[in-house]
Automatic annotation (TrEMBL):
Stretches assigned to the START domain: 20-179
Organism: Aureispira anguillae
Top-rank lineage group of the source organism: Bacteria
Pfam families for this protein: START (PF01852)
Sample GO molecular function, one term: lipid binding
Lineage: Bacteria, Pseudomonadati, Bacteroidota, Saprospiria, Saprospirales
Stated name of the protein: START domain-containing protein
Record Gene3D superfamilies: 3.30.530.20
Coiled coil: none
Amino acid sequence: MKIVALLIFTLVSIINIYAQDKWKLVKNKNEIKVYVSEISGSNYYAFKAVMTVKSTEAEIIEVLRNVSNYPEWFAFTASAKLIQQTTNEQIFFMETDYPWPFSNECMNYNMRFVKEQGKNQKITITETDKKVDCKYSLKKASGYILLEPDKGNTRISYYFHSEPSQNIPSWLINPRIHEMPYQTFISLKEQLNI
């Protein structure tokens, strides 16, 4: 019985170590950490950014629900427009600014505000099947924002993965993908007045 327990413990430890090694820290500045990871079946990296702020969950959600202000603080956002909003969900259009010689790409997103068991608030971000009115629509996009209480503050984790529909080489995007969440978090702090 002890051997079985030891084997299970060892296996769980190996899985946890492997899972932790999946993410590579690429930026650690201004109390913001940004990680990147390869994604199975994709040439484009996912990112995960983490910071702790002296704001409440309600204050952060208020900023997230104000879609028309996204171009002011959400990095590389050319335009954004609210389509539909309820208490726990919103659908919005967002146009991502791509550098020359590429065109901007857009997508309609569904953002759901879900209170997890305990005290965490998870905001899922998924693509919708609603047709978008732009030349290029992202091939795929999904992620989440997790808000967790942290000693009177709020810890924000932002995960996202997307793929462009244009033939943009991954070697052009992957080395700079961390700048998007980093600049977004810097601007989010300003929106929250901290």
